[in-house]
Each structure stands twice: as C-alpha cells, then as structure tokens.
Amino acid sequence: MRNDRSLTVLDEDFQRVLAVVAHPDDLEFGASAALAKWAGNGTEVTQVLVTRGEAGIDSIAPEQCAPLRSNEQLAAARVVGASGVEFLDFPDGTLEYSLELRRALARAIRAHRPEAIVSINFRETFDGGGGFNHADHRVLGPALMDAVRDADNRWVFPELRDQGLEPWSGVRFTAFASSPYATHFVELTEEHLALGIASLDAHEAYVAALGGFDQKTFLRNNAEAAGARCGVALATIFEVIG
Ligand SMILES: [Zn+2]
C-alpha cells in the first residue's frame, strides 16, 4: 500500500512521558501500545486520569464504579509498565474547562517534568468516524495544551511555586491518539500490540459492559490500518501539537 507521506515518524528520544486522559480506558483504546514500547525502552511513563470514569457504566452506580474503574486502570498501567498513576478526581461526564482544571494539569506537568505528553483525540470526530466525541475529551485537549503553557509561566498559578513546583519548559510536544488530523506515527511490534490489547483487557468490567465488543480485533485492525498508511506493519498515529 502506498505510504501516506503526510505522516512522519515521531521522535521518540525522550526520557519521561506524561499520559493525561479523562477516563480509565482512554489510553487503552489506542495509545497504550506506544506507552508499552516506550516503557520497555526505559522511558518513565506516568499516567494521569482526570476522572475515575464513575459515570461510564450504566449498570453500576458511580460510588461502586469509581473504585472499580480506578483498579482496572491501575492494572492496565501495570501491563504497559507505567511507573505511576494519579487521579485528579474531577467529575466524569461533566468535565468543564476551568482554571481549576488547568491548575491541576499544570501541577502534574511541573511535578513530573515530562518531555512528551500523550493524550487522546479532542476533536469533534474520530479518525475513521465513530460519532461525536465525548464532551470530557473535547474539554480536556485544549485545557491540557493551555496547561503546558501555564506550567512554563512562573506568574501563572503562583501558588504552585509556593508548593515547590518550579516552572517546567521541557515539554517538546503533546501527541493526541485517534485524531482525524494525525501528523505523526509510532511503529509498533507484535509485542507492543499484544501489550496494548492486554491493557484494554484489564478494563474487564468496562469492556464487559460494552456487550460483545471484540477489543482484540478492534485494536489489531486499527494498528494494521495505521501501519498501512505509514508503510510499516503496525503503528499508532498521533496528532502532534507543539
Ligand atoms: Zn473517555
């Protein structure tokens, strides 16, 4: 298949990655195979979950769902070799663009000092369709990019410096998986893909609630389609900003 020359290889020469998403399962729907690749190469991967996904399963009330899905995320993070998981405890389903959200994200960026940030698509639609994107995803993307700038400005959120969190200017880019405006790709091996699939398997209750969803086929098809666009066997594609 002809290569999509608009997609370029992502520069993977970084030591610390911060993966920031709205919900447990967001990373596992495409980005986590790349996280597994990087963690396997010695990169420090930390996951930040803005909510606990407590509104994500119709048959399970939020107070039971929050700890269940938190534990599923911890298991998924272990599969890909992440070194830590943090929950910011914003409300699932009603996330708002706010200074509080930007401050919490800027705090995480200053604390972890990543060179790369990974998230998922914040555009209205997904690569390949899939309907209107979730409100929380659409809110998080712009707030996250603003927080990258906030993290580098000593005069914004001065209370963070009072907490010992100095400005951090080292973020080179933010990469959003599953975007319809992909610019870059990461080549994957079968091993990376297997870890990515296993990380979604870890969201046992969530996947069960989807009812007959075949995550293995879904993730393999996406990785093969992305690979075909880029002239490799398997890949994950990202919209890179920064
Ligand atoms: Zn989500």
Automatic annotation (TrEMBL):
<protein>
    <submittedName>
        <fullName>PIG-L family deacetylase</fullName>
    </submittedName>
</protein>
<dbReference type="Pfam" id="PF02585">
    <property type="entry name" value="PIG-L"/>
</dbReference>
<dbReference type="InterPro" id="IPR024078">
    <property type="entry name" value="LmbE-like_dom_sf"/>
</dbReference>
<keyword id="KW-0862">Zinc</keyword>
<dbReference type="InterPro" id="IPR003737">
    <property type="entry name" value="GlcNAc_PI_deacetylase-related"/>
</dbReference>
